[in-house]
Write a structure and sequence with these properties.
Layout: H1 4-21, H2 33-45, H3 63-75, H4 80-106, H5 108-121, H6 134-150, H7 154-165, H8 174-185, H9 191-215, H10 219-227, H11 230-237, H12 240-257, H13 259-269, H14 277-294, H15 305-321, H16 326-349, H17 364-373, E1 380-384, H18 389-394, E2 397-398, H19 426-436, E3 441-444, H20 462-471, E4 472-478, E5 481-486
Parallel strand pairs: 1-2, 1-3
Antiparallel strand pairs: 3-5, 4-5
Helix pairs in contact: 1-5, 2-3, 4-5, 4-6, 4-15, 5-15, 6-7, 6-8, 7-9, 8-9, 8-14, 13-15, 14-15
């Protein structure tokens, strides 16, 4: 594809295709509950609280909250369209990096295909896949790290690996890829030097990140909530019935819907001996990325974004390297386009917050409207359950540092609710928050059974039971959700 005008035309068509594929993300204010968590914490963070403290608590690294908070400062609190525009920009930047890697490995056509495949993969799924989530930021940094790895820029590759970890801990699996890269790309006399440069980049970035957390007063909270809590979070997810349920909803459709790319990647793997070292690194990247995608056991569809960049690149290498009959190419195009178009149509109309609920679905807009109509913008609200979306939809701040409870937990399973966000040290902090910021309304979604929360009524939690009994009374029930207001003096 040597003609500049022709190359530009193809690049433009691919850019338009990726843009159109992600259009449904701009038809909804929220694309999943995680966006609501990040948004509600970011809004609280912008009031001056410390992350992992009074400014909001979650078990994710700080990168996603800093991005959301910065976007809200520019565009306005809870401006989710701006967040989705940032997310699309991150997807586009990753496509560009994949184009560069593909071009370096297999030529211009391979680069274009890699960019196209990633852009389509990240949109061909349920609404949660389109969300501006931790995985897309992690994947941008990981892809940049791999590009520099292939160019043997080990220090900066290590720096970017840590940058990826600032959004999601499982980015660390790419250390295995770095080991393979140093072994394959460097001569025996230079491997130790390359390893030292890579380690130096990792340590320098870890030091910079620790300094940023220290200066913002978030270091101890970061360790408590994102490191100490990891084992408990993963252990509650690795319950066989829970894993199988998630696998049916995410892993199976991820593999089936994009079977063409998986077949292409497997076909490339079967030619392992004929691959050069850089192509082999792409295959290793795909393997370690799948390990990272399933490591937590949660198996949500967007977790597999970690594997989508190397999968798209492996598929591009196959189609760029081998000449196929026209009818095979046509079948491949149809095999990719039909699922993508089907999900595109579905994502336009589906309510991202209730699409996987069995009827009757939560009428969250009605509850949010009640909150907005019966509070003022300066008042805070407390939601019991796992519905932080109500904060954003009502444009109200959280009264607590905790945006939700029993998140990532197999609610309704009968397993004791000993989750990372219901440990004994949570309740004194919750009590302190509610005393410092008395909520104008307490919204009890457990009363309606939203998100399988009926087994965890507020009366079973003394901090909430005592507060409601002494200071609040029920004022309304909206779609089964009980709403409490303070007693009049």
């Amino acid at each position: 594809m040597s003609h500049p005008r022709q190359a530009g035309l193809w690049a433009g068509l691919i850019a338009i295709t990726v843009l159109v594929a992600h259009v449904p993300s701009f038809f909804h204010r929220l694309l999943d509950g995680d966006e609501a968590v990040y948004g509600s914490i970011a809004a609280l963070l912008n009031t001056g609280g410390q992350l992992y403290g009074s400014g909001g608590v979650d078990n994710k690294p700080p990168g996603i909250f800093w991005v959301y908070a910065a976007t809200f400062r520019v565009a306005g609190t809870y401006q989710m369209t701006a967040i989705h525009a940032v997310g699309l920009g991150v997807i586009a930047a990753t496509c560009v990096l994949l184009f560069v890697i593909g071009r370096d490995l297999g030529g211009f056509r391979t680069g274009l295909l890699a960019a196209l495949f990633y852009g389509v993969l990240t949109a061909a799924g349920n609404p949660r896949l389109l969300a501006t989530n931790t995985e897309i930021f992690m994947e941008l940094a990981l892809t940049a790290s791999v590009l520099l790895m292939l160019r043997r820029r080990w220090f900066w590759s290590g720096c970017l690996l840590v940058a990826a970890g600032a959004f999601r801990q499982v980015a660390a699996v790419n250390v295995l890829l770095a080991v393979a890269g140093i072994f394959w790309l460097e001569g025996s006399d230079n491997r130790q030097r390359a390893a030292a440069w890579f380690a130096g980049g990792v340590l320098a970035s870890l030091g910079a990140g620790a300094l940023a957390l220290l200066l913002t007063g978030s270091l101890s909270g970061f360790w408590r909530w994102t490191v100490d809590s990891l084992y408990g979070y993963a252990s509650t997810n690795w319950i066989p019935s829970f894993v199988w349920q998630r696998a049916k909803d995410s892993l199976v459709p991820f593999v089936v819907d994009m079977a063409v790319l998986w077949i292409a990647a497997i076909a490339l793997i079967t030619r392992w001996r004929s691959l050069d070292r850089m192509e082999k690194l792409v295959i290793v990247w795909l393997a370690v990325s799948m390990v990272g995608s399933i490591a937590a056991g949660h198996l949500s569809w967007h977790y597999f974004i970690q594997a989508m960049a190397p999968l798209g690149l492996a598929g591009a290498l196959f189609f760029g390297r081998f000449s196929l009959r026209r009818w095979v190419t046509a079948v491949a195009v149809v095999g990719i386009a039909v699922p993508a178009l089907g999900w595109w149509a579905y994502d336009l109309g589906a309510d991202p917050l209730t699409y996987d609920f069995s009827p009757p679905v939560p009428q969250h807009q009605l509850v949010a409207a009640y909150i907005r109509d019966h509070t003022t913008p300066g008042q805070r609200v407390f939601v019991w359950g796992d519905w932080p979306a109500l904060y954003i939809e009502s444009d109200r701040l959280m009264a607590s540092r905790f945006p939700g409870f029993l998140r990532g937990f197999d609610r309704g399973s009968g397993i004791p609710p000993n989750n990372w966000d219901t440990t004994p040290d949570v309740w004194p902090e919750l009590q302190s928050d509610l005393s410092a910021n008395p909520p104008a309304l307490i919204v009890d979604t457990a009363a309606a059974g939203w998100s399988d929360f009926s087994m965890y009524p507020m009366r079973d939690y003394p901090v909430l039971a005592d507060l409601v009994a002494r200071r609040y009374h029920m004022v309304a029930t909206v779609d089964g959700v009980a709403i409490y207001a303070p007693n009049t003096p």
